[in-house]
Amino acid sequence: MRSLYGFLLTAGFFLLTVAPAEGGLTCKEGHSGPTYESMQTVFDRKPFRPSVNLSNPTVTNISFTLYAVLGVYWHHEFLMWDPEECDGVTKISLPVKDLWTPDIIVYEFVDDDVSQNCPYVYINHTGHIRYDRMLRIVSACNLEIFTFPFDIQNCSLTFGSYMHTIKDVRVFPALSFEEISGNSKRYLQASGEWELVVIQGDAGILKFGIDEWDVITFWVVIKRRPMLYVVNLLIPSSFLMIIDILSFYLPPHSVDRASFKMTLILGYTVFLLIMNDLLPSTANGTPIIGIYFSVCLALMVISLVETVVITNVLHHNSMKFRDVPRWVRVLVLGYIARLICYAQPEDEPKDTPKSDSTGPCVTQPCAPAQTPTINGHGVLTTLPSDIPELKQICQDLSLMRSHLTSLQKGSEMQDQWCHVGYIMDFLLFRIYLLLITLYAMVIICMWCIWFTQ
């Protein structure tokens, strides 16, 4: 798709150079310059190209300054006089409507010319005519905005005759391309969104069928001033991404991290909707900054999914007292923990009750206990006893032991699942941080490349 770009050209001129007509213009005594009667014949020949020999082409010199005046110079062979005979007059002005003018156009022109015409031309005694006019050009330029807002555009403006071929009108630059570029930079150095880099030119021949036209092509190289888009797009997006990165430091087991991230995603979506008008709408392809915003939004969604997964690992699986699968222990607690340098805290030694063959409480059902007694001689003896209260106490202690054992096992499994969740959280956080860093480096490098050009 080709986008429309407007250029205001200033300082352009048409210049024609011809051999003096036979006899030239005459001047009467007491008159300053050629008389109107002597020029009436020239005015009557307006429809014809001013050349004594029609086999000789009319030379036209073109010069323009971006944001300035279009100037065209040409040579009129019938408008020549001797200044000594005309009181030293070397320059006059005449209405442009009474003279033949070259049909110089811009081939990339795609809109009506609404600029104001200059009604007069300046004529030198040698027959050179200068025609200055403001020309507002809306031209077609193929925009390359992949690096937006750090893009550099190269647009062409081709000047040439519309009807006269190379046999009739020859086109040459009136100034050097360096002078044209320097003059344009003085006008454009502090105006608008664009900054002029350089104006280059090339003279060539345009062919259509068997006919050839002499043309001049000016290449206008401009680059965008990105500060507006950096302040309004990149910096706010970076702030939201930094907050999303810092949200990983919220403890997932005690804070509702998911709600916080959902709020960030909603805010980022509103930001994109508001700033959508600042992005170019008509161009070839998609700018990398649009891809950057889409990827940032996708990363925020991925971070939310990661939070949901980690929350499920920390709360759901551990509350069901499921054992950590062996492959998870080997992969996560072994390799990934060492990869991300995760220091797993040492478990404190816990006192576990041990079975005592002499005690009344074992994991098996209680056996009949022996009641110690002392006989008449003072000797300690044991007598079998079947007291119900003692059996009940033994059963209660056995239940307490099994309950404590299950609690201890659940606590150990919960600690293992917590370690798995923390390790996965650290791993995904580092991957997320790496991706954000790579995107930031790409934007910074593009800005540096743009700044050095």
Automatic annotation (TrEMBL):
Swiss-Prot/TrEMBL catalytic activity: Ca(2+)(in) = Ca(2+)(out); K(+)(in) = K(+)(out); Na(+)(in) = Na(+)(out)
A Gene Ontology molecular function term of the record: transmembrane signaling receptor activity
Ranges where the Neurotransmitter-gated ion-channel ligand-binding domain occurs: 60-226
Domain Neurotransmitter-gated ion-channel transmembrane residues, every copy: 233-443
Signal peptide from the UniProt entry: 1-23
Subcellular location: Postsynaptic cell membrane
One GO CC term on file: postsynaptic membrane
Membrane topology category: Multi-pass membrane protein
InterPro entries, sorted: 5HT3_rcpt (IPR008132), LGIC_TM_5-HT3 (IPR049944), Neur_chan_lig-bd (IPR006202), Neur_chan_lig-bd_sf (IPR036734), Neur_channel (IPR006201), Neuro-gated_channel_TM_sf (IPR036719), Neuro_actylchol_rec (IPR038050), Neurotrans-gated_channel_TM (IPR006029)
TM helices/strands, residue ranges: 227-250, 262-279, 291-315, 431-452
Keywords, ordered alphabetically: Cell membrane, Disulfide bond, Glycoprotein, Ion channel, Ion transport, Ligand-gated ion channel, Membrane, Postsynaptic cell membrane, Receptor, Signal, Synapse, Transmembrane, Transmembrane helix, Transport
Task of the protein: Forms serotonin (5-hydroxytryptamine/5-HT3)-activated cation-selective channel complexes, which when activated cause fast, depolarizing responses in neurons.
Similarity comment: family membership: Belongs to the ligand-gated ion channel (TC 1.A.9) family.
Cross-referenced PANTHER family: NEUROTRANSMITTER GATED ION CHANNEL (PTHR18945)
Protein known as: 5-hydroxytryptamine receptor 3A-like
